[in-house]
Amino acid sequence: MHAVPVINHPCTLCCRPTSMWCSRCQSAWYCTPEHLHQDWARHRKECIPPTNQQTSNNSSTSNSSNAYGVNMIATPPPAEPQYIAVSAILFSPEEERPRIITINCRPSHKPSQGMCPIPLVSNHFTDGQPEGIVLTQGLNSEPLRFPLHLWYSPNALKKGAPVNRAIYHITSGAAPKAWCGTVVVLKFNGSRRQGYSDAGSNDLPALSAYFLAYN
């Protein structure tokens, strides 16, 4: 009777001897499923399934592998994207004054290319898909160091209702044409517009100038 050798590879995370590997790539070893989960943020970048030829070879040797006590650990699901929360300004038709709200931004698929996160503002617009305008100038047409990203409802503007009372308030009713519908304003973190920073009351003068010029 022959003794069955035991395969003991060091766990990728703690170096403890183990006979379990990642079921997806079959090349990284872990002593517990928890260690695979803990290391997944790093390991997922190199976790490449075997090629067809490798898979065939693995299948042909699966019986011998099992004889050596090799077990598999299921690969964790992809990590959920980490949302970025920033302060924005809400101009609501039903409210007399603008107020600060929090907007979550979904990271772009290619942040290394400088693509700006996507603000999730749709829940503030019940009458259709919102559209965005980028304001690059403030009072007296001076360039804004941090451009403003204004989201509004084209449908509300076309209908001419409801009149935005918060915008009416900050313009003292002097705008030649009333702005209608909800408006949400975010603030870019620089002129390259690769991300957002917190908007606040300091941005109201530039917004007031824009609304006063709207016609």
TrEMBL record:
Q: Is Mitochondrion one of the keywords?
A: no
Give start and end of each MYND-type domain. 11-47
* InterPro entries on file: Znf_MYND (IPR002893)
Q: Which UniProt keywords apply?
A: Metal-binding, Zinc, Zinc-finger
Indicate yes or no for the key word Ion transport: no
Please provide, alphabetically and separated by semicolons, the GO molecular function terms listed in this UniProt record.
zinc ion binding
Instruction: Name the domain of life.
Output: Eukaryota
For this protein, the record's Pfam families field holds: zf-MYND (PF01753)
Listed SUPFAM superfamilies: HIT/MYND zinc finger-like
Q: What is this protein's record name?
A: MYND-type domain-containing protein
Q: Which organism is it from?
A: Macrolepiota fuliginosa MF-IS2
